[in-house]
Each structure stands twice: as structure tokens, then as C-alpha cells.
Amino acid sequence: MPGQKSLSQLKDYLAETHAVFISIRKLKKLKDHHWIHRKGCIIPWGFFAPQAHILRDEASFLAVSKPPFLPVVASENHQSLHHLMEAHTKQKLWVVHRLDYETSGVVLFAKDALTYQGLSALFKERAIRKKYYVWVYGQPKSAKWTCRSYLKKYGARALCVSEDAGGKSAETRFRVLEKGVIGSHSVTLLEATPKTGRFHQIRAQLFDQGLKVVGDGQYGEICRLRRIGVRLMLHSASLEFTLAQKLYRIEASCPADFGK
Description:
Order of helices and strands: HEHEEHEEHEEHEEEEEHEE
Shape: globular
Largest sheet: 11 strands, mixed
Structural class: alpha+beta
Number of strands: 14
Helix content: 10-25%
Radius of gyration: 19 Å
CATH architecture: 2-Layer Sandwich
CATH class: Alpha Beta
Number of helices: 6
Distance between the termini: 7 Å
CATH topology: Pseudouridine synthase
Number of domains: 1
CATH superfamily: Pseudouridine synthase
């Protein structure tokens, strides 16, 4: 769990990050200095490309800590967490679920078809307890609350709509962990526990409540802090489930850029 120093560490990170927008032509000149190009923004590779590491290596599944800016799956010509783990373990792995490109945290891979079916069923039946940490702009009115809404996917986004409009039920419990200010921006660190697993559920529900996730350019305007290199500040902190009559709790520490 992020500690009391998380806000100050996030402030330090923002102050020390000097990412700027730059043309592709100039990118080659920066490669030797260990900077990397992502989404039109030059950011320090050391912050955003840490090595993915294995959290649990069981006989039937693999639990991995996914760094930001590494997709879980990708085309053959692009690096992905799935490809990296198959190369590392030298065996076929089944992708059970995914995290967004910029989201960090726990990802599960099955080692056989039977385990894949079992874990997929647990996700579908909402039998896996998930916990996320997320930084948002603004301060919620309550210290803890439950958000129940209906979400519908529109292209690359999800919006809160009515059930009659084709929305699917979504439920998330939120709890305030820390409040503070970065520059002129009021920010809050939340713990989010989704009961359902809808597309962009946490991001869409927070946006609907006027709480924009720090670094999220997909919902609402791209906030000023986004332009100095902040990624989507959403972290999958833990998964808890029972498989083959055994209880598992898998936890992933927050990356350096997140504050902990």
C-alpha cells in the first residue's frame, strides 16, 4: 500500500521529469542518451521501462508485475509482456486478462488450457477480488463510497449511460488514502475495488463523477501535468482468488513513478 510519503515522491518525480514534445527527426539524437519516444513525448527510459518481474511462479499459472508502457499482448513485430514471459519461461502461456497500455500491476498467465478456463471463469463469475490505486485531480466529497452505474463502450472509450441505452452494470468501491496539492492542482490518492470488470470501468466512473485520473488524456481534456511526462496513474495492486481449493493473494508494489 502506498505510504505517507507517496505525495511527496510524486511531487519529486514531477519536478525532476523534463519530458518535452519533439519531432521524430530529433529522436535519433536522443537514443544514445537513454531516452525513449512514446505517444509523441520524449520520456526517460529508466522511469518507464523497468524490467517486468515474476511475482508468483506456480505449476499452473504465472503472476507478473507489468510495468507501464508495455502492452500485455501485441502484434508479432512488437514487444509485449506475453512475448517476454513466453521467452523467459520457454513455454506456451495463455493470456487470462489484460491491463491498459499505461497501467501497471498484477497480470496472470495460465500455463495450460485447463487453468486458463478456470481463471477465465473466475473473472467472468466475479470471483477474483481486485484492488487498484489511482491518483485523481480534485478531492471527493466522501472518504469512502460505492459507485454503481451502467457503462457502454463507444470506440476506445466507455461512458456512463442508462440501462435502457444498452449500458452494462458496473460497481466499484472507492476509499480515500491521501489528499494533497501539486502546484495549483488538488490531487487525491484512491483505493479502488471493482466488483465488476467492465471496459475502462474505474476511469469512466471517476470521470463521470468529475474526478479525472492524473495523466489520463482519453477522458476529458489532457491536463497540464500530462505534458511533463506523467503516464496514466492507475496501478493494479493485488488479485485474490481461490484456485484448486487454494487461496492466492498476489500483490505488486507500486512503480517508482507512482509513489509508494
